[in-house]
Design brief:
The protein contains 4 helices and 8 strands, in the order ααβββαββαβββ. The chain folds into 2 domains: 76 residues; 90 residues, no CATH class. It is elongated, with a radius of gyration of 34 Å. It has 178 residues and is α+β, with helices and mostly antiparallel strands. A 4-stranded antiparallel beta sheet has the order 1-2-7-8, covered by helices on one side. The protein has a two-stranded antiparallel sheet with strand order 3-6.
Length: 178
């Protein structure tokens, strides 16, 4: 039994019997005991923080390994479906598919774009500001062969796969872009 344990036990016994008489010596002993307890608490926190960091590092390492393997397998599936003429392949454990995304517009020179966009109705009005209405810009760029300060980025085909029986019976879908 340590000194602190003895102090605590003595205090509990005397507290049950009667009020402990306080003196300068007794107060100093209690302060010393509190100091030791606070140091022990700090040591426990430090140990736990160290263990947590070790566990988080382990988790990150293991997840990175698993994600790398999953990415490699998904890449192999993507290469397989691209080698066929099919857009969707249903398999016993899931589905692999290719989907064409949307065309996107990119404002390459905002100053040039803003000068011509207002006249062509390509801005949407937000109180106190104007910003490009990207859907209208995409439509305009498709119909006309260009616009100062804007460029059309054509849609890209993206690879997706779905695994059956994951997430309580719900299908899980992942996207691997190329």
């Amino acid at each position: 039994m340590t000194f602190i344990d003895e102090l605590l036990a003595e205090a509990e016994i005397k507290e049950k019997e009667e009020r402990v008489e306080m003196s300068r010596l007794r107060a100093d002993q209690i302060l010393a005991a509190l100091s030791v307890l606070e140091q022990n608490a700090a040591d426990v926190n430090k140990l736990c923080d160290t263990e947590i960091s070790i566990i988080e590092e382990y988790r990150a390492t293991e997840l990175h390994k698993l994600e790398k393997k999953a990415s490699w397998l998904a890449y192999q599936l993507e290469q397989f479906i691209r080698s066929t003429d099919e857009k969707t392949i249903n398999l016993p454990h899931g589905t692999i598919r290719l989907r064409l995304g949307r065309d996107k517009a990119e404002i390459t020179d905002p100053e040039k774009f803003m000068r011509v966009a207002a006249a062509r109705g390509l801005l949407r009005s937000i109180p106190e500001s104007f910003e490009p209405d990207m859907q209208k810009v995409v439509t305009y760029l498709k119909q006309n062969n260009g616009l100062a300060g804007a460029a059309l980025i054509p849609a890209q085909t993206k690879f997706y796969y779905t695994i059956k029986g994951i997430n309580n019976g719900k299908a899980a879908e992942s996207e691997i872009g190329t």
